[in-house]
Design brief:
By secondary structure, the chain is mostly helical. The protein has one domain. The chain is built from three helices and no strands.
Length: 87
């Protein structure tokens, strides 16, 4: 009994046949590494979301209007500084 579907076996065979991987084991190992990387990134994202929700719950928020006003001011200052004549 195999835990891999026929399609998955064909996909692995194709990757090995193409020369991209040297063996079936290399394909599986790389696949597991990619899953671990994705799970790690998702865990980081979950932490960021939880931190954001906690900020909201504690009233540490700004309105979009305030944020855009500050961004526009920073952009205007950056443009003004980049157009000043250099000494």
């Amino acid at each position: 009994m195999s835990i891999l579907s026929d399609q998955t076996k064909r996909d692995i065979d194709a990757l090995v046949s193409s020369g991209r991987y040297r063996s079936e084991k290399d394909v599986i190992t790389d696949g597991i590494r990619l899953v671990r990387d994705r799970e790690h990134r998702l865990a980081l994202l979950d932490n960021d979301v939880a931190r954001g929700v906690a900020d909201i719950d504690h009233g540490r928020v700004r309105t979009a209007s305030d944020v855009f006003t500050r961004l526009r001011a920073r952009y205007a200052q950056s443009v003004a500084e980049s157009t000043e004549p250099s000494s």
